[in-house]
Amino acid sequence: MDMKKILITGAGGFIGSHLVEHCLRQGYEVRAFLHYNSKNNWGWLEGLKLNKKIEIVCGDVRDYDFVFNALKGCDSVFHLAALIGIPYSYLSPLAYVKTNIEGTYNILEASRQLKLQNVLVTSTSETYGTAQYIPINETHPMVGQSPYAASKIAADQLSLSYYLSFNLPVKIVRPFNTYGPRQSARAIIPTIIMQLIEGKKYITLGNMNPTRDFNYVEDTVNGFLEIAKSPKLLGEIVNIGSGKEISVNALIEIIASLMKMKVKIAADKKRFRPEKSEVMRLCCDNSKIKKNTHWKSSYSLEQGLLKTIDWVKRNIKFYKSDMYYV
Fold it and tell me: Which of 80, 129, 244, 288 has a CB 3.0–4.6 Å from the CB of 143, allowing a cystine?
């Protein structure tokens, strides 16, 4: 599908900032939508060498009027802005309703009024809950095992309703666990790396039995663009994942080996999810994206981890390992 100018919400975040760079490299004009703050800080876009085809706007996705004006002049939107921390969703479910559901409504309704040609809404593999079968394809039942997951399920269903009711050109992008440079310190891979760098005698983590399907961020953002360009995926949910699962225990061993360090592990009960809320197993069926686009995974887990380790080492100042991140 022809795209010229793209609005990217959540553009200062982990995946969003990589997506901005990727779209600029591909020659698209980008309007980067950042969450307003009094310091006019651009998040992870700060310090990047951005070309002249980018425009920065700062506001709040919960503000319909701002969203509407931000979308003017764009033909496509990649909606990534969301509250994503699962632990905090136990403390304030309403915050997730307002940002993840109402914020998505604002994007959908403004896109409908402005007749956008391409509306990509970012989902998450957490919407599947613990795998009922492996690998997980897009028809797997959705189970909201946390308020975060429930808010994303609601946003996905609202988005699909706009396709069915108003013929809005919606596509649901459902990445499995993305990792790489700039990821939040609360995520498992940066948590392990930074504690090893700081010479901790014991790595403190939560439940180490769950399995996840980890994908390097460059593969994820390439998937976004491939899905956006495919006319065959209108009104569809599309997974992005490697098709391989690994337990947290095994992941720790690989990272420690790559860093040539020995590791001991201590369980931190503060990092455990409530028992019924823990998603125990995730593994992606990526046949749909492969069938309908030119996407393929370019990075092995080891290759992506080496690049991530190198970045964290050079940017350890951004992380505080003694804090509990929610």
Answer: 129
